[in-house]
């Protein structure tokens, strides 16, 4: 059943890429878009696993508030995003908590972001509200999905309890164009901080871009809309996160009565490769990412990302 699902996934991706190329046929001239809708999905099925961070689904709407010009020192974009993600132990067949290497956890949230960009840097502020536990719908959605393809159904015993969360994320991005040629080379750094009941961490990300990539205020690398030109580039990325609190392992930082919780490891590393393709009205992103263990009882985990955006 997994191979059948992968085949369907591959055929759908080919169809979308073909449709996008037809829609985006042009002479390469710039296109102006004030809005964008994005569908993004994380999943570990390409690694033939169903554990730890197993799935994340995101639907985003972006709106250009003003462009960067002589009257505005910053290009401003607003984003609203619906997110659902869930985490499972590696042993999804057992109904005994003693057999789990991490607790079941689900999150359903709404993210609201404001991005301020100019020729030199980008500031991003995101406010998140959401819920964990059975009310997040993660247990029901995963159980339904597994029932449709006759695969193994997770037990979801002892999951992180129902709770309401609020979080604030802030990041500062700066980059340098190392080579300006047919194949551009850029280096970017992005410190980030998270404060709230769901996440509490400090992070720094380093990314190397290779290919035909536009400047910071107009590239799809940072989901920038407005003046759009074709892009095709790749990225190697890595980040270090110092974790203070992780509600997907510990429950709410304020008060929590979950049956099974774990302490997160202090240091978490993400790394991987990404590919980007922009064709005027359509943006495509594919990534293959890894994260080191989030708790002492787990291990390094890989997952893939597929993102499709429509600009208008």
UniProtKB/TrEMBL annotation:
Top-level division of the source organism's lineage: Bacteria
N-terminal signal peptide: 1-24
UniProt keyword list: Signal
InterPro entries: LpxR, Put_OMP_sf
Pfam families per record: LpxR (PF09982)
Annotated protein name in UniProt: Lipid A deacylase LpxR family protein
Source organism per UniProt: Rasiella rasia
Biological classification of the source: Bacteria, Pseudomonadati, Bacteroidota, Flavobacteriia, Flavobacteriales
């Amino acid at each position: 059943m997994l191979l059948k699902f992968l085949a369907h996934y591959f055929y759908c991706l080919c169809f979308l890429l073909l449709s996008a190329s037809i829609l985006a046929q042009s002479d390469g001239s710039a296109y102006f878009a004030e809005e964008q809708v994005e569908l993004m999905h994380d999943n570990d099925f390409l690694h033939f696993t169903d554990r730890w961070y197993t799935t994340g689904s995101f639907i985003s709407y972006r709106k250009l508030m003003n462009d960067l010009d002589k009257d505005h020192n910053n290009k401003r974009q607003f984003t609203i995003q619906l997110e659902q993600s869930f985490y499972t132990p590696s042993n999804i067949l057992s109904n005994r908590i003693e057999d789990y290497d991490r607790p079941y956890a689900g999150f359903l949230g709404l993210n609201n972001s404001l991005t301020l960009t100019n020729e030199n840097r980008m500031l991003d502020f995101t406010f998140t509200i959401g819920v964990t536990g059975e009310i997040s719908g993660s247990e029901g959605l995963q159980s339904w999905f597994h029932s449709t393809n006759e695969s193994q159904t997770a037990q979801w015993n002892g999951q992180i309890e129902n709770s309401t969360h609020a979080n604030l994320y802030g990041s500062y991005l700066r980059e340098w164009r190392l080579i300006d040629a047919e194949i551009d080379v850029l280096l970017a750094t992005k410190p980030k901080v998270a404060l709230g009941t769901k996440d509490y961490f400090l992070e720094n990300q380093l990314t190397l871009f290779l290919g035909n990539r536009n400047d910071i205020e107009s590239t799809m690398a940072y989901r920038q809309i407005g003046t759009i030109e074709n892009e095709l580039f790749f990225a190697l990325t890595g980040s270090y996160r110092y974790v203070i609190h992780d509600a997907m392992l510990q429950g709410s930082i304020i008060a929590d009565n979950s049956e099974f919780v774990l302490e997160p490891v202090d240091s978490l590393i993400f790394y991987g490769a990404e590919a980007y393709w922009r064709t005027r009205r359509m943006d495509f992103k594919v990534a293959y990412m890894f994260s080191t263990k989030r708790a002492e009882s787990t291990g390094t985990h890989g997952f893939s990302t597929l993102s499709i955006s429509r600009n208008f």
